[in-house]
Design goal:
Strand content: 15-25%
Distance between the termini: 98 Å
Strand order of the largest sheet: 7-6-10-4-11-12-5-13
Shape: globular
Largest sheet: 8 strands, mixed
């Protein structure tokens, strides 16, 4: 029952109603407000169940919903602000909940990579109930504050007395708004992602070897074919002893014992999604652009020729006369995959549309695309078609049956029995992949077959077990080559090492190191030579680095790194940092006006000198680091050090070198001024 207290009002006494129907700001609360609170918190509560790290989001939801209702009880401009705040936060709540549901993490580059029409089309079909439910939810909740505003009750005497008695209503409303925004998980997640990207812009590391490289055709005796299978989310962790009760992929594990298996393949930043994993594996590059906001505005779907000038796996093979084709059950337009493949060596592309024309039965498809049993049938037909051709071939496939969150097993695997959801999908894929690989090896004996996880599994039915062994999670990478001995490679590797490793298996000698990758059959991974703090930001063109008067060049022994124009350059030879034991010499060559002319990285003083003698730029000057003993003894005779830094024009009085013990700075104005004086006096004076 209602209860109250007596309050004076002039000469009269009035009882103030403290029933639940009375608002703190002095207006009567309708049941619609309570229902609004409940509706607003539904996606937040569901998302928190996916990831308890965002539990504070519930407190934020309570604060924002109270703030919205409070605004609705005021004037028209307050109600307009309530509508805008409610609409924006409702959409953001759905966006973050979607990311947590599909990825198990908040906003990141893969999330924004998939903000396109093709992704929404697939989501509409693959998650029809959730998609349309969320759409109805957003529409209903976005108009709810309008309904609240129209249902304003008349002010009562009780309300007036309460407003006089409780003068802090506005203050409490402000507190609700502050708490709501301070704990608002979507905003915190977005700021964390954005600040991380913005912070990397000026602190980006540029790897000279990632600049476009031309393809020089080499003679390969008895060229082998290549079949490369990207297995959707099928990480090696599903096979590790002690993780699950038993090996979930026993047939693939047995097959790997008859090939070369790589047991320490790690997922690194910017390789966490299908498209980024494929680009990393085939180009030895991460998918990144210069600035953080370009992750939204210049993604693959909006770029006609992604990674221009870069040489990727199919580019190299196509230049050597290989027939190339890609087969995948998902749409080619998804995440711009088709544009990348068409721009980098694949002459034939078959996606969802082509496979559905070949397999029109609805049971052979899901919302994500055509099932793997149909994909492997089509791949077998393509291989038989090519078998009568003398030209070598490369066939790349992308599976999808193990797509999160619960898997999409092919109907050919039959009904689920003891296993359910993702576990059943993994076991089904184990059987289908093993049968396909066995068939290729039997019918096409001169073929190298490779199986690679496109990325580690995102949030799925088995995430609880996977996350409990987070430190042990690894990518699956196994290769079966003709007449090759079985082997286990335990060197740490990444996606970036896949392209050089596969080309090594195929007999190519000039691609054993490329961009951020190295053949794991011969070398340690280039990525791990960069050091934990070096984060490469690879761009589609050389960033505009300049030597500018009034600034400084900073040399750091760790790396070693050279800071020029606010950007870091990693001093390396063949992708390996000099401090990792490479006795090399690295230099950035600049034009006299300060523009970058190119990079030089050589193992010996003779090679370095020869490289400069062949350079057509007579006015160039150098900024570099040396770990070469002969170079260091020649130019720093008194106290030669393991590392030396140098600046100026090689072979002239303007060339200086000093030991690099930890960190040194050089004034750019002095470098440019001395260089300009020498060029004016005698442009050809050099002892290169």
């Amino acid at each position: 029952m209602p209860f109250g207290l007596e309050a004076a009002d002039g000469d009269r006494s009035r009882r103030i109603d403290w029933s639940p129907d009375t608002m703190a700001i002095g207006e009567r609360m309708q049941p619609t407000a309570y229902l609004y609170y409940l509706l607003y918190l539904i996606p937040i509560a569901a998302a928190v169940s996916f990831n308890l790290a965002y539990a504070y989001w519930l407190l934020s939801g309570i604060g924002i919903s109270v703030f919205v209702v409070g605004l609705c009880r005021r004037g028209i401009w307050h109600r307009l602000a309530a509508v805008l705040l409610n609409g924006a936060t409702t959409l953001a709540n759905i966006a973050l909940a979607s990311s947590l549901y599909l990825q198990g993490t908040g906003f990141n580059a893969p999330f924004f990579h998939h903000l396109d029409g093709e992704t929404f089309a697939i989501a509409r079909e693959a998650f029809a109930g959730l998609f349309y439910g969320a759409l109805v939810y957003v529409l209903v909740l976005c108009v709810w504050p309008v309904w609240l505003g129209r249902r304003r009750s008349q002010r009562t005497a009780n309300a007036k007395a309460l407003r006089r008695l409780v003068d802090g209503g506005r203050a409490r409303l402000a507190v609700a708004g502050i708490v709501g925004l301070a704990c608002y998980a979507p905003l915190i997640s977005l700021l964390g992602y954005g600040l991380g990207r913005l912070g990397a812009e000026r602190e980006a590391t540029i790897i000279p070897q990632t600049l476009p490289a031309s393809i020089v055709v080499e003679s390969v005796a008895d060229p082998r074919n290549l079949v490369l299978v990207f297995a959707e989310s099928l990480e090696a962790t599903y096979s590790l002893a002690g993780v699950f009760d038993e090996d979930l992929t026993p047939r693939l594990s047995e097959l790997a014992r008859h090939g070369t298996r790589f047991e320490d393949m790690r997922q690194v930043r910017d390789t966490e999604a299908t498209i980024t994993g494929m680009i990393a594996a085939m180009c030895a590059l991460p998918l990144r652009t210069i600035f953080s906001w370009e992750n939204v505005n210049t993604l693959l779907p909006n770029v006609d020729a992604p990674l221009p000038g870069q040489s990727c796996l199919a580019d190299v093979l196509s230049a050597h006369g290989y027939r190339t084709a890609y087969l995948g059950g998902a749409p080619l337009a998804f995440a711009g995959k088709g544009k990348f493949l068409a721009a980098h060596g694949f002459r034939e592309l078959y996606g969802r549309q082509a496979l559905q024309a070949r397999f029109p039965d609805a049971s052979r498809s899901s919302g994500w695309g055509v099932h793997d049993d149909a994909l492997f049938t089509f791949a077998g037909e393509k291989l038989e078609e090519w078998s009568g051709d003398e030209r070598p071939f490369m066939l790349a496939l992308l599976t999808l049956d193990t797509h999160h969150p619960s898997g999409l097993p092919s109907t050919g695997c039959g009904p689920e029995t003891d296993a359910r959801g993702m576990e059943f999908a993994v076991r089904c894929s184990d059987r289908l992949l093993a049968e396909f690989i066995d068939g290729v090896r039997e019918r096409h004996p001169n073929t190298v077959v490779a199986l690679l996880s496109d990325h580690l599994a995102h949030r799925n039915d088995l995430s609880g077990v996977l996350n409990a062994h987070a430190g042990d999670r690894r990518l699956r990478f196994a290769v079966w080559a003709p007449a090759a001995d079985t082997a286990v490679v335990d060197r740490p590797g990444t996606h970036f090492d896949v392209m050089p490793t596969l080309l090594d298996f195929l007999g190519f000698e000039k691609w054993r190191r490329h961009n951020l990758g190295a053949s794991l059959l011969r070398f340690d991974s280039s990525w791990f030579a960069l050091g934990a703090d070096a984060f490469p930001a690879l761009t589609q063109s050389l960033p505009p680095i300049r030597l500018r008067g009034g600034e400084q060049v900073v040399f750091e022994a760790k790396g070693p790194l050279i800071r020029v124009d606010g950007r870091k350059l990693l001093a390396n030879v063949e992708g390996l940092a000099l401090e990792q034991g490479e006795p090399g010499i690295f230099a950035v060559e600049f034009h006299g006006d300060g523009r970058v002319a190119g990079f030089h990285g050589r193992r010996s003083l003779e090679e370095f000198s020869q490289d400069l003698r062949e350079s057509p730029r007579l006015d160039s000057l150098l900024v570099g680091v040396s770990a070469n003993e002969a170079f260091n003894r020649r130019f720093v005779r008194d106290t030669p050090a393991k590392l030396t830094y140098f600046t100026g024009r090689f072979g002239t009085d303007a060339f200086t070198a000093s030991p690099l013990w930890w960190r040194e700075t050089v004034d750019v104005s002095a470098i440019l001024g001395t260089h300009a004086a020498i060029v004016r006096s005698d442009p050809t004076r050099t002892t290169r």
